[in-house]
Amino acid sequence: MSAMxxxxxxxxxxxxxxxxxxxxxLEIREGEIIALLxxxxxxxxxxxxxxxxxxxxxxxxxxxxGHDILTDFRAARALIGLVPQEVSLEPFEKVIKTVRFSRxxxxxxxxxxLIEKILRRLSLWDKRNAQIKxxxxxxxxxxxxxxxxxxxxxxxxxxxxxxxxxVELRKDMxxxxxxxxxxxxxxxxxxxxxxEAEAIADRxxxxxxxxxxxxxxxxxxxTRLGKKRIEVHLSEPLDAIPPALAQPGLSLEGEGDVLxxxxxxQAERTGITKLLNDIAGAGLVLRDLSTRQSSLxxxxxxxxxxxxx
Length: 309
Description:
Elements: E1 5-13, E2 19-28, E3 33-37, H1 44-51, E4 59-64, E5 67-68, H2 73-78, E6 80-83, H3 95-105, H4 112-121, H5 137-149, E7 155-159, H6 167-182, E8 186-190, H7 194-200, E9 203-208, E10 211-217, H8 218-225, E11 228-234, E12 250-253, E13 258-263, H9 272-281, E14 286-293, H10 296-308
Parallel strand pairs: 3-8, 3-9, 6-7, 7-8
Antiparallel strand pairs: 1-2, 1-4, 4-5, 9-10, 11-13, 11-14, 12-13
């Protein structure tokens, strides 16, 4: 299947020599959700702005649905919906007129049934005649999404869409994104909320310093880079790890009553069996046993830290 969005060796250098993008290459399939993670200044917004035609690339090639963003700009841009990070709406305009206007900007005929469908999906129908200034911050973000969907784009960019909204509303938006994916919309999400990427993305891209450190299937990334820990809770605390138990990856934690063992889930032998046998051989009594896998946040921090070193 050909990529809905193809980015090849994309570079952006601003006046003064600052390189915001350093040869980014990325292909995104139709109906896929990809989350771009990265610290402030990593290049996430510059990447989105460049693909959407807000910023002109220094070099490289980008196509959307096969249309080049420079030589076939109108066709490419017509396929894109953008929900910007900053809320910028006319405060005295009504919700429904704001969304209608966005559709008209792309030369589409008026379609009241579609506008109603979008507003209902985003729980905005009851607010359709309210002025923007009367809405809460979360509702304003929903209006931004409605505006972006009004011309029926096939690629949707969400630049920090849930920043500043409460947890309940954030999860509502995750549901909306899942519905869009079901309709075949390709979604590129930038977020500071690691759990957001973990909850809804198909693939994770980590960007830092204008470079993509990796792009990988979310579950595969968790398996490949995620380390697993086994916590052995002892009936009696220890002053130190007995010499017979000492091995790489084993530490004594808590109040001396927890043995923490970190192991590689991909290794041929994890060392768990040996550890449990050694514990029994040392005469230690287990009170409880549990395992925990590294979260995406821990993986992300490790990757960015490695990229800086």
